Amino acid sequence: MKRVVRMDSVAISGQTLSINADHKLGCFVEMLERIKQQMDAMLSHHSRILIVRFDLHVNHYQPNNKLISDFVRKLRKKLKSEYKLSRLGYIWAREQERAKRQHYHFALIIDANKVRHPQKIIQIIETIWQKWLLPKPFTPKNCYYIVNRSDTQTYQAAYYRLSYAAKTRGKGYKSKAANDFSASRIHAKERLSLKAA
């Protein structure tokens, strides 16, 4: 059974972080831990990171996540070529509630010393996704954050935003072979102490 937290905050590695939790259904702790781990790992390699949030929709229900895996592969190849990135962090969550098909919440985490604004990245995302005749990706307002290592306030704001992907609501409508959540596997360069404001 996956651990669930139904509080306004979660303690991970000695750090207490505010989360966007549904108090009745809660958030999965493992997912919250993975989000923090990838943010911290990227910040161990880069003095500042750009986090970009967007949603991906499909035309019909799919029992597996092959489409999102193909998308990550194409996006990684394109962004590494375009910006000479050495690593690409990401998290995604698969959800399905009232609709008959799933959608994905996606967050991209990259070196903000090489990319300072997401406009061109969003265009690349839209081109890849729509080339497969899928609906245009949804980009929410204030879709990005630039987080410096020492900026605990922006770190907390970005984490709070990404924690929404860890909510239990909408998860589980898939085959056993598919995951509700996945993230990159960037390993930290050094141990960082990022304390919430």
Question: Which properties best describe this structure?
Answer:
about 200 residues; alpha+beta; 5-stranded antiparallel beta sheet; two-stranded antiparallel ribbon; 4 helices; 9 strands; about 30% helix
Q: How would you explain this protein's 3D organization?
A:
There is one protein chain. By secondary structure, the protein is an alpha+beta fold. It has one domain. The protein has 4 helices and 9 strands. The strands form 3 sheets. The chain has a 5-stranded antiparallel beta sheet, with helices on one face. The protein has a two-stranded antiparallel sheet with strand order 1-4. Helix 2 crosses helix 3. The chain is globular.
Beta content: 15-25%
Percent range of helical residues: 25-40%
Total number of β-strand segments? 9
Helical segment count: 4
- Strand and helix order: EEEEHEHEEHEHE
The structural domain count equals 1
Strand line-up across the major sheet: 8-5-7-6-9
Low-confidence stretches: none
How is the biggest beta sheet arranged? Answer: 5 strands, antiparallel
Task: Provide the structure class.
Answer: alpha+beta
Overall, the morphology is: globular
Distance between the termini: 32 Å
What is Rg?
16 Å
Q: What's the overall average pLDDT, rounded? A: 90
Kindly summarize this structure in a few lines.
By secondary structure, the protein is an alpha+beta fold. Helices cover 30% and strands 23% of the residues. The strands form three sheets. A five-stranded antiparallel sheet has the order 8-5-7-6-9, with helices on one face. Strands 1-4 form a two-stranded antiparallel sheet. Strands 2-3 form a two-stranded antiparallel ribbon.
